Structures are given as structure tokens and as C-alpha cells.
């Protein structure tokens, strides 16, 4: 039997994801609204489609799974961003996705991500 020390970080993340999905499914069957249950299933399906062979992709997938699990375990079901919408094909890191969704509501907030890094770099270089 393998000890805890022998388990790779990727295996640990994959096991953590399986446990989170089990709990999400248990919580999802208690949702009254069929529409909301379907929404949860869409997100679980998208999370399961993510690459589980790369460490960073597994970390991002687990961030979303844990956030969804926490949301479903509350007394009242209320879908927050990013779960209000259909899941995107490619998942951005959760903090980046949440920041970008907040910046859509508050235009004064900066966006994040590679595209924005390019814009900021261009503006800084142009200023120099």
C-alpha cells in the first residue's frame, strides 16, 4: 500500500476532485428547481472534461469544484458568478474569472489575464 508521501500532487488533486464531485452530486439532488439541478450538472460535466494530467489544470478545476460545493452546501441556494452562466470551454483561474466578472459590473476596476497584461505592458512601454 502506498503511503501518503508516495502520492503525487496530481493524484492528490484528482482524488480531491472526485470527493468534491461526490458531495456536489449529493447536494444537487436536494435542489428543488430542475433548472438549477441541470445548471449544476452542466458545470460538473465541464469540470470533468478538464485535463486531469496537468497539475495547473487540475488545480483550476478543483478551485471551481470546491467553490461550487461551498455554494451548494449553504442554507439557501444562490448561484454566484461564475456559476450563473453556462460554463466556458476553457476555464480561467477562478480568482481571475471572478475579478473579470466584477470588473464588468464596475468598469473602474482593472481586468486580469494575458490580454490585459499585454495592454498594460504596451501602455507602459509607450509611456516610456
Keywords:
single chain, 128 residues, mainly alpha, globular, DUF4485 domain-containing protein, DUF4485
Question: How would you characterize this protein structure?
Answer:
This is DUF4485 domain-containing protein. It comes from Hermetia illucens. There is one protein chain. This protein is mainly alpha-helical and about 130 residues long. It has a domain at about 5-90. About 60% of the residues lie in helices and about 0% in strands. The protein contains 5 helices and no strands. The longest helix is centred in the N-terminal third of the chain and has 20 residues, at about 10-30. It is globular and about 45 Å long. The model is unreliable at about 115-128 (pLDDT under 50).
Amino acid at each position: 500500500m502506498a503511503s501518503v508521501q508516495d502520492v503525487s500532487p496530481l493524484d492528490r488533486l484528482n482524488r480531491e476532485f472526485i470527493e468534491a464531485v461526490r458531495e456536489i452530486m449529493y447536494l444537487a439532488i436536494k435542489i428543488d428547481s430542475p433548472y438549477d439541478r441541470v445548471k449544476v450538472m452542466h458545470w460538473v460535466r465541464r469540470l470533468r472534461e478538464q485535463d486531469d494530467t496537468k497539475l495547473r489544470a487540475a488545480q483550476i478545476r478543483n478551485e471551481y469544484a470546491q467553490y461550487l460545493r461551498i455554494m451548494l452546501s449553504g442554507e439557501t441556494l444562490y448561484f454566484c458568478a461564475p456559476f450563473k452562466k453556462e460554463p466556458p470551454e476553457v476555464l480561467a483561474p477562478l480568482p481571475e474569472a471572478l475579478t473579470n466578472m466584477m470588473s464588468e459590473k464596475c468598469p473602474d476596476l482593472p481586468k486580469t489575464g494575458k490580454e490585459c497584461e499585454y495592454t498594460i505592458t504596451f501602455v507602459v512601454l509607450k509611456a516610456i
